Amino acid sequence: MTELLELYERMVKIRLVEDKLQELCLQGEAGDLHFSKGQEAISVGVCAALRQTDSIVTHHRTIAHEIAKGAALHPLIAEILGKASGINRGLAGEMHINNPTIRHMFSFQLVGTCVPVAVGLAYALRYYKKTDDVVAVFFGDAATSNGQVHEALNIAKIKKVPLLLVCENNGLAGNIRKEFYLPTKTVAERKAAYGIRGYTIDGNDVKKVMIATIGAVGAIREWSLPYLLDCETTRLCWHKQGQRDIRSPEEIAKLAERDPLLVCERRMDVLPETLEKTWKSIQKEIDEVFAKVKEDPYPTWN
Amino acid sequence: MKIHFDSPQIEKEFPDRVITLPISEDANTNFAVGMALAGVKPIVDVITADFLYRTMDSICNTIPKEHFTSAPKTIIIRSEFMTASPTTGQRPEALFTHIPDLNVVVPSNPLDAHGLMDTVLETKGATLFFEDRMIEDKTTKPEDMDTYLDIIPLGKGKIRRRGHELTIVSYALTLRMLDLLFEKENLEYELIDLRSIYPVDYDLIADSVNKTCALLIVEPDVTYSGVGAEIACEISERCFFVEGTQPFPVENLRHPVKRLGAPRTTIPASRSLHDYLLPSEKRILEVAKELSR
After folding, report:
1. Does B163 have pLDDT greater than 80?
2. Which pLDDT does position B254 carry in this prediction?
3. Is residue A300 a part of any domain in this protein?
4. Which of A16, A96, B5, B6 has the fewest beta carbons under 10 Å from its own?
5. Rounded to whole angstroms, how far apart are CA atoms A269 and B11?
6. Residues of A with CB below 8 A from B36's CB?
7. For chain A, how many structural domains are there in total?
């Protein structure tokens, strides 16, 4: 099991990279990006429980998933800033990154598309390539209003695909509140129609997410079945940079009490000075990467 | 033999290579995208061309954009044209020629369907593969398939009939109809089978038009914003005579390029009305005669 401090460091890395990118957005140096501030524990916790050869398929908030799965920072940031040295040569941007070297196979902007793609990938890996690899697919609770997700859950169960369904449940669809798209009390209830197993967990507690994933992945690998983790979480940033939030600053401040970094700090028995040192060293690393990416050329069309 | 493939027979012959999925067109095509990510070559059987509208999102959004941002992978979406009723008789093939990173294949006979399927299975990239249920080829036998060795490169048309009076371009059902018609009437028009409507073999058409100096495009589809419009524009640009720019021949396009095809209408259910949808033999012969003058 990965040490809690290491998980904490990964979350801090995501937070600091996104903060830096947000700065660039506000300065007009980057386009409008989608951040995972407050949701980092899910990607970090899930990816910590996966093997290197396990694949992930994700939605449009890709920065957290990329870092959690172990992407090198330079090509990731270069891709987001549209440089030729990016993972996808600057063609994909933040929302369409696919990085087979770390087995981040697919990400897509359109809500819900990632789930059927992940089902097909998991099916092919198990029944054609005969591996025991697991696919983890990340989607939001809002995506469960989309037909693609329901069609995919249906196929996943019928075809017995080795798939971990990770619902990043932040109770928002862009800027729309839960009551406008979720008739049930929880997202997890929706799985019942397809006979898929799973449960709701606190998605802001990285340790709980990791332990739940270890259990789920073990079962998936053994029996090849879809399994759902409904991770309740809090989005502490805007839906997309440059779009005003429907929530009041007070409401967000209240949610920030559940910030996964704070939750993790409370769990760890570490001196505040040590934490400060960690933040500083990560910040230094990130600053260096951003400075290098700035020098990289933009792609040309030919 | 018929041009469209026989799913139950394939399932019997290759049980471990046929995956039966629910009627979830869009998720099924996205499922195939996931399979291609794992290095498997999927053929998605979207049974009727009308059902393609149900899976436009995965065909136009997921596949080409994924291929563009990472690398093209072999994915084939096969579908059949029918003529029966408002939603089982549409021909949406021209729509897909507008989407970057998609190939669109429309064979007019069983041997071409065989050869083109071999080609696209070896092509990195996504292909819409259309089969025409109405085409019945009485001369081709199933055993001909085994001896068929022609390699058909993607984007290469074929001259079905030689002639010097007029170039006629067509594909699929109407090509078949024209071929039989000119055979019967013993007419010498140059008949070009496009075989794929993206990419289009413009060189072949332009060479022929430079010889015949007239072009007629006959489509089995709605002409409005169709394949013929695109070809007419390209050939006008290439072959219209502008003094000093083209050394040979002296006389290029004598007439404006002419299109014949289906009206912009929904397919009626009554069979008796279907004959009105495609241009009649009489009309084709009239127009061809006019253009070859």
Report:
1. yes
2. 83
3. no
4. B6
5. 61
6. 120
7. 1
Chain B residues whose C-beta sits inside 8 Å of any chain A C-beta: 19, 21-22, 24, 26-28, 30-40, 42, 57-58, 61-62, 65-66, 68-70
Residue A302 lies in a domain: no
pLDDT tens per residue, range B15-32: 889 999 999 999 999 999
Is A116–B40 a contact, with Cβ atoms under 8 angstroms apart?
A: no
Is-contact B196 B105, C-beta < 8 A? yes
Give me the interface pTM, i.e. the ipTM: 0.95
Domains for chain B: give ranges and CATH numbers: 7-147 (3.40.50.970), 158-291 (3.40.50.920)
What does pTM read for this prediction?
Answer: 0.94
Which residue among A96, A97, A148 sits closest to B27, beta carbon to beta carbon? A148
Best residue of A96, A117, A157, A301 to probe chain B, by most B CBs closer than 10 Å: A117
Lowest average pLDDT, out of A186-190, B43-47, B140-144, goes to B140-144
- The number of beta carbons lying within 10 Å of the beta carbon of residue A43 is 32
Q: Note whether residue A301 is domain-resident.
A: no
pLDDT at residue B138 in the model: 82
Q: Compare CB distances from B61 to A110, A123, A152 and report the shortest one's residue.
A: A110
- pLDDT, tens digit, 9 for 90 and up, residues A173-197: 988 999 999 998 888 888 889 999 9
Which residues in B lie closer than 8 A to residue A98 (C-beta atoms)? Answer: 66, 69-70
Burial of B215 (0-12, 13-18, 19+ CB in 10 A): buried
Q: Is residue A137 part of a domain?
A: yes
CATH of the domain at A145: 3.40.50.970
Residue A124 to residue B68, Cβ atoms within 8 A = no
- Structural domain harbouring A239: 4-295
DSSP state at residue A194: G
> Are A122 and B57 an interchain contact pair (Cβ–Cβ within 8 Å)?
no
Of A97, A103, A101, which is closest to residue A133 (Cα–Cα)? A103
| pLDDT at site B5 | 65
Q: What is the mean pLDDT of residues B95-117?
A: 94
Q: Where are the beta strands (DSSP E) in chain B?
A: 43-48, 75-81, 102-105, 126-132, 158-161, 167-170, 190-193, 196-198, 215-222, 258-262
Please state, as a whole number, how many other Cβ atoms lie within 10 Å of the Cβ of residue B145: 14
